[in-house]
Design goal:
The protein is of the alpha/beta class. 35% of the residues lie in helices and 21% in strands. Helix 3 crosses helix 11 and helix 5 packs parallel to helix 6.
């Protein structure tokens, strides 16, 4: 059988993108062949460094099944486009803004936000992290940024984000001491958030992860109404009261036409470090029930882990310390799923018919 682009495309038809579900043959952007070799380039719409080796092996095996002992070279790239929803304004220097939110505090939202940002960076994207919890900023500490670090000022008007573990970060903790409470009313806090978003000199980001404050108050509404969001990730625990609050968070995003990209169920199980016994302290299955009720996906169920807590307390998030650890691989899977969901929403938006009204 002759080796042509058409034959290769047909051969790869049944190999599916693990997150989008469509054929990888549609991702082929370049092809060349010699007498005993084939070079393929594929372009995905989301960062996926963690799965390209496996996908390349699947492609190589399929081609060699059809064409014999052929030398196959497979290259993967990603082209990340911008997708926004709602009526807010785009953020300069940022393609996609993702809100990480929870209906109540204490569910591990900030833990998910920082590790999601780092996981997207490991997968191959340019990432920023905005700590929007004005009253209780924690990302500076979680990223190991020394206390007293202040952003440099660019042209007397913009703040340069602080870089930590390869991502750009901005937080209210960079403006005041960790021990200084923000004793502000809602409008003041909302104004501070708008300044953090709009007056930070974000540098060519594919994704800006926003660690939202818990609840559905002024700051959350300000972000949803003023900033063009690409989507939201809801963090909850299996506990009934947490699930009720998670529903409120989902409803808030639905009211402002921001898609919920998925649910992360945190503290789903405790594994004893001595004997390995597993116990669902806060209940089980609640995250999946909420995801199914609202037509979204359960991105992951994360364990209650003392190791994660210890690493974050020392300013060394798990994904930064060991990107190949078991928990880091879970966060990287979440990152790919979230980025792919944005890519899918973007494709769906482009495929919608445009209705133009013409006055005769």
């Amino acid at each position: 059988m002759a080796i042509t682009r058409e034959s290769i495309t047909a051969a790869l038809h049944d190999i599916k993108d693990p997150y989008l579900g469509n054929s990888l043959s549609a991702a082929i952007t370049d092809f060349s062949s010699g007498e005993q070799s084939v070079l393929l380039s594929l372009t995905l719409g989301y960062p996926a460094a963690g799965i390209t080796a496996d996908l390349a092996q699947q492609i190589t095996d399929r081609i060699q099944q059809l064409h014999g002992d052929l030398e196959v070279h497979v290259q993967f790239n990603w082209q990340i486009e911008s997708f926004t929803s709602g009526k807010g304004q785009p953020v300069s220097g940022v393609k996609n803004v993702i809100a990480v939110a929870s209906g109540k505090g204490g569910v591990g939202k900030s833990t998910v936000a920082v590790n999601l940002a780092l996981a997207m960076k490991v997968e191959g994207a340019r990432v920023g992290l905005l700590d929007a919890d004005i009253y209780g900023p924690s990302q500076g500490s979680m990223l190991g940024v020394p206390e007293g670090t202040r952003p440099e000022i660019y042209q007397q008007s913009l703040m340069e984000p602080i870089e930590a573990h390869g991502i750009q970060c901005m937080s209210m903790s960079f403006m005041a001491s960790d021990r200084t409470p923000m004793v502000w009313r809602g409008p003041m806090a909302s104004g501070a958030l708008q300044q953090l978003v709009g007056q930070t000199r974000w540098d060519n980001l594919d994704y800006l992860i926003v660690d939202m404050p818990p609840g559905t108050g002024d700051i959350q509404l300000t972000l949803c109404q003023q900033v063009a969001l690409s989507g939201a990730v809801i963090v909850t625990t299996p506990q009934d009261i947490a699930l009720l609050d998670a529903q409120k968070g989902i409803e808030m995003f639905r009211q402002v036409n921001v898609p919920v990209l998925g649910i992360v169920e945190n503290m789903s199980v405790h594994i004893c470090s001595e004997c390995g016994h597993k116990e669902t302290i806060f209940g089980e299955g609640g995250g999946l029930v909420i995801a199914e009720e609202y037509g979204t996906r359960l991105l992951a169920s994360l364990p209650l882990s003392i190791e994660i807590r210890q690493l974050l307390d020392s300013g060394q998030p798990p994904v930064a310390v060991d990107p190949e650890s078991e928990i880091s691989l879970v966060f990287r899977d979440i990152a790919r799923a979230v980025a792919a969901a944005i890519c899918s929403d973007s494709a769906d938006a482009e495929s919608q018919p445009v209705i133009r009204i013409v006055n005769d």
